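Bug #77: duplicate submission created two jobs. Keeping one. Sequence:
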Amino acid sequence: MRSIELPISRYDFILIAEAPVALSPFPGLTLRGALGHTLRRIVCATRMPACAPCPLRFSCAYPVLFEPYAPPDHPEAVRYARLPTPFTLEVPFDPPADRFAKPAPLSLSPGDHLSFGLTVIGRAREHLPYYLYAIMEMARRGLGGPHQPFRLARAEMHTPSGPRVIYEEGSPMDHPPASPIRWAVPDLRAGRLAVRFATPARLELRDDLVYPVEFPALIQALLHRIRALQAAYGLLPDFAPDPGLVEAAQAVRRAEDHTRWLDLRRYSTRQRTAMRVGGAVGTVVYESPDGFEPFALLLAMGQLLHVGKLASMGLGRMEVIPL
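Kept job's structure:
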């Protein structure tokens, strides 16, 4: 098994509920909205109603993380006026065992923990102190409502030598430099492979939702996401996927499918309406006569950076299991 070094940092946070709490069944929907709102309120210096015309949009911590614009000297400035969002959330989610049941709200009692992770890409990692303070403020003001306060108990950063505490309740913040991550590329020479979608994977091809998840569609979705992130943030200096990967994926058979489509709903403040944001959850087993080694790098990157739409909310978290 080989590993690759990437300009990506990963952080873990533990919040403690200070009152009875009822959150969305998928807390990533709440966390992303609350973090974005709080971060903008804290760091916005111009108080302009939108980031697009703001002269600070290329350096301010909020647009760099939530609304990244390509500076004029960026090599992809002509192609991407807006860059892909440089973060994903890792949130707890336990879909109901009954495929016809709706996910229950996440209920917490005072003293219960809510843990989540944040994976940040590229230069957005430079603003860690702002993110940390925004999470503290977000928790204090309440998630899902002002009467559901939390407090930040602990924050850790992944480093090559193990977790490093960057904040602990009652202690000052630590401001370490961004630590790149080393990520394992699995050995996938075997002819069977399981992919578990731990959170709903919302794949789209030609503006159509994809279900069931055939292997060529999974590879196309991964290529689309990783190519965009590579162009925007330079993940790998020599990233050049084989142009025949999608065609090669056609030979892969979906042997077992234990997935289901799970609908979630979120309220869009911008569009002022409730929106469906569901996707496939569960495990699918693929078989290939030639093994999966040509797809190993893409699948490894998918485990780290998710696949499909709304990854910044935590959707599309996948696990690759060689069989």
